[in-house]
Design brief:
Among the domains are: 59 residues, no CATH class; 169 residues, 2-Layer Sandwich (Uridine Diphospho-n-acetylenolpyruvylglucosamine Reductase, domain 3). Helix content is 40%, strand content 19%. The strands form four sheets. An eight-stranded antiparallel beta sheet has the order 13-10-12-11-15-16-14-17, with helices on both faces. Strands 3-4-8-6-7 form a five-stranded antiparallel beta sheet. A two-stranded parallel ribbon has the order 1-2. Its EC number is 1.3.1.72. Pathway: Steroid biosynthesis; cholesterol biosynthesis.
Length: 516
């Protein structure tokens, strides 16, 4: 039988099986079939398109010239909204399924959509060590652009598809954040189109109130059209030290100790059970022992969290040299560890060598094709949350995560939180060391109920003066939300800039208790 006939027979059998089981049942219980046959190839096409577009823009140097024209078009849309009587709120016209957040926002169907086609790197200023970018530039795009020039940005949040705009209007973090803070703290200026159609630049010394109010505002103060971000010199490798630690108290002590060392370029922890973890520290370097180089980003390599787990199972320390860009995107191929629930055999060596070059599927395509049944299933039986808590509360926080969720691995990422104005700052007058605890997966706690369990988690986070990342499902009441976040500057600016008729309040945009 020829290969064509074999392929045809296979597809026919697959279609008959899908018809027998029902499409919805297949998508819910055998989602890997749909992902492998359709979403992985589509994801490749997406990547090829955006890479070719970025290459063409770079070759033609068109981004800086067209930027001003595109901004004027955004201003014209806002003025048109005003002339129509400002009858409904505005929001970006980018489809909700394109966002990396798993939250499904329905507000775009009822709000005035403002089309914002801004996805290019505008300028690299080596003297000032600043890169100026448009809001839809992704982390994968930015590191690919800067690294060949010998530059990178101080905080490169995980996952290639995260955008600058999302990381500013929401937040972003990486294992270098114990030195540089959150993504917003590496930005030196923003440019926004406001509710009256005007274009405004803000920085710590120019329109400073707006500069500090923009992060975490989720696009409810204006439309971001450009950002200036600090750059630092890039080096070829990250020298990683893997340290297995057992016992919760020892895990927290070791993680805190390493997070306080500024000589560590990177600090990260993966907690595999209540009593087991691997603490990783890294330093940037141009020199490497050839025998210890691990190009972990290559498609055939094991998923990073599985690779790290080997040190725990073997109960041994280790040192490796990972190429810098591979390190920055080390969790991308497995979407941290979410992909194991979608493609259970995805880390199998045979699958990696044959199909690993197509992984991961685009999160946006997963959202677009998930359907109502999968969405409800994920909402009730799946957790994707990042809680930011003071480092001094780490041990108690892990115990709470274990009791309320029992999801492993947990991701630990330290960050320094300066006492700047805005929605998120420490309780005291000085900068404080915090930690992001990321929980991604299916809770193993018996009688887990999404709303009740998450409200319990949110109550605990508020009690230790922590914060919940706003990309995730939030179940707080309005009063509880503004108890967690400092809304004083935010509400003052919304009043001053006439935002109340132009944009919904951030709570109404992101919290499940308020969303339409």
């Amino acid at each position: 039988m020829s290969p064509v006939w074999s392929l045809g027979a296979g597809l026919l059998l697959l279609l008959l099986w899908v018809r027998h089981r029902g499409l919805e049942a297949v998508l819910v219980h055998h989602r890997w079939v749909f992902v492998c046959l359709f979403l992985l190839p589509l994801s490749i096409l997406f990547d090829v398109y955006y890479q070719l577009r970025a290459w063409a823009v770079w070759r033609l140097h068109s981004a800086p010239r067209q930027h001003a024209q595109r901004v004027r078009y955004i201003q014209a849309q806002v003025r048109e909204w005003k002339n129509e009587g400002s009858k409904r709120y505005m929001c970006t016209g980018r489809p909700g399924w394109l966002a990396v957040s798993l939250r499904v926002g329905k507000y775009k169907k009822i709000h005035k959509n403002i089309m914002i086609n801004l996805m290019d790197v505008l300028e690299v200023d080596s003297e000032r060590q600043i890169v100026r970018v448009e809001p839809l530039v992704t982390m994968g795009q930015l590191t690919a652009y800067l690294n060949p020039m010998g530059w990178t940005i101080p905080v490169v949040p995980e996952l290639d598809d995260l955008t600058v705009g999302g990381l500013i209007m929401g937040t972003g973090i990486e294992s270098s954040s114990h030195i540089y803070g959150l993504f917003q703290h590496t930005c030196v200026a923003y440019e926004l189109v406001l509710a009256d159609g005007s274009l405004v630049r803000c920085s710590p010394t120019e329109n400073s109130d707006l500069f500090y109010a923009v992060p975490w505002s989720c696009g409810t103060l204006g439309f971001l059209v450009a950002a200036e971000i600090k750059m630092i010199p890039a080096k070829k490798y990250v020298k990683i030290h893997y340290q297995p630690v057992r016992g919760l108290q020892k895990i927290c002590e070791k993680f805190t100790e390493e997070s306080m060392k500024k000589e560590n370029s990177f600090v990260e922890g993966l907690v595999y059970s209540l009593e087991e973890a691997v603490i990783m520290t890294g330093v940037l370097t141009d020199e490497a022992e050839q025998s210890k180089i691990n190009r972990i980003g290559n498609y055939y390599k094991p998923w990073f969290f599985k690779h790290v787990e080997k040190y725990l199972k073997a109960d041994r320390t280790g040192i490796e040299y990972i190429p810098s860009r591979h390190y920055y995107h080390r969790h991308t191929r497995s979407i941290f560890w979410e992909l194991q629930d979608i493609i259970p055999f995805g880390n199998n060596p045979v699958f990696r060598y044959l199909f690993g070059w197509m992984v991961p599927p685009k999160i946006s395509l997963l959202k677009l094709t998930q359907g109502e049944a999968i969405r409800k299933l994920y909402e009730q039986h799946h957790v994707v949350q990042d809680m930011l808590v003071p480092m001094k509360s780490l041990e108690k926080s892990i115990q709470t995560f274990h009791a309320d969720l029992n999801v492993y691995p947990l991701w630990l990422c330290p960050f320094i939180l300066p006492n700047n104005p805005g929605m998120v700052h420490p309780k005291g007058d000085e900068a404080e060391l915090y930690v992001d605890i990321g929980a991604y997966g299916e809770p193993k706690r018996k009688q887990f109920e999404a709303r009740a369990s998450m409200r319990q988690m949110e109550k605990f986070v508020r009690s230790v003066h922590g914060f919940q990342m706003l990309y995730a499902d939030c179940y707080m009441t309005r009063e509880e939300f503004w108890d967690m976040f400092d809304g004083s500057l935010y509400h003052k600016l919304r009043e001053q800039m006439n935002c109340k008729d132009a944009f919904p309040e951030v709570y109404d945009k992101i919290c499940k208790a308020a969303r339409h």
